[in-house]
Known about the structure:
Layout (H helix, E strand, L loop, with lengths): L2 H17 L10 H8 L2 H35 L4 H10 L8 H17 L1 E4 L7 H12 L13 E7 L3 E9 L2 E9 L1 E3 L3 E6 H9 L7 H11 L16 H21 L14 H14 L1 H7 L1 H11 L9
Parallel strand pairs: 1-2, 2-6
Antiparallel strand pairs: 3-4, 5-6
Helix pairs in contact: 3-5, 4-6, 5-6, 8-10, 10-11, 11-12
Bound molecules: zinc ion.
Zinc ion binds next to helix 8 and helix 10.
Amino acid sequence: xxxxxxxxxxxxxxxxxxxxxxxxxxxxxxxxxxxxxxxxxxxxxxxxxxxxxxxxxxxxxxxxxxxxxxxxxxxxxxxxxxxxxxxxxxxxxxxxxxxxxxxxxxxxxxxxxxxxxxxxxxxxxxxxxxxxxxxxxxxxxxxxxxxxxxxxxxxxxxxxxxxxxxxxxxxxxxxxxxxxxxxxxxxxxxxxxxxxxxxxxxxxxxxxxxxxxxxxxxxxxxxxxxxxxxxxxxxxxxxxxxxxxxxxxxxxxxxxxxxxxxxxxxxxxxxxxxxxxxxxxxxxxxxxxxxxxxxxxxxxxxxxxxxxxxxxxx
Length: 314
Ligand SMILES: [Zn+2]
């Protein structure tokens, strides 16, 4: 319960004591009064107030969040943030002025709701926060605008980081140390290498972008499962998604297995979740090639992200 709810209950008890409703002398000790007034009736009142307050909180919380987000969206975008976006996100200038304004709003909400944590001594700067936020928010132009609800913290390492990984090798499970550039967890955290983010922003056309990749995983994991299917706007959208994604995924697996050239990075053939993340990177960074070779996939992602990167001049 919130402090003001405790205050409300106390006030009720105090008023009742003071009015002598429960037959308690006003000059009794508080502890005695309290013991005396905790009758089934009072407990029922306290219980109903607490339940009402909790219900009210649950009902009002989404409205409060929406109000706060609308307020942040409407705020003046700081010049320092704009200058970082203009210098680090080359495709920003290709967005329409309405889209730029919308992106600025998403970034303000994102920066308010997520926390950045520097790892291995990395000092989090405004450049790190705004650059990562702006790239991640490119994925929020859809109608849902849920701002990666499972995510609270973004852990940023200065370079690639080392983790211990269990690997199944000919019926033997081995532990090995591997370098990672990023990872997305179903709950709470996402990890990035700042060095990799910097490399990615220098080249928007190689089909590799660790921020787009890991935040696409966040969209996929929003329902608690990583299977290459984010939450879609309408029930009828899932059939089209399954049809196109399955065909494209199997085609990529086939081409990778046979050593053929592919528009998408071969890592997309790992599993459907990685396919969606890699397809997202390719959609934003190699849109023309993707549309040319995989039109159905491009159009599916264009409908989902409500953007057409093919039209961007950069
Ligand atoms: Zn991945």
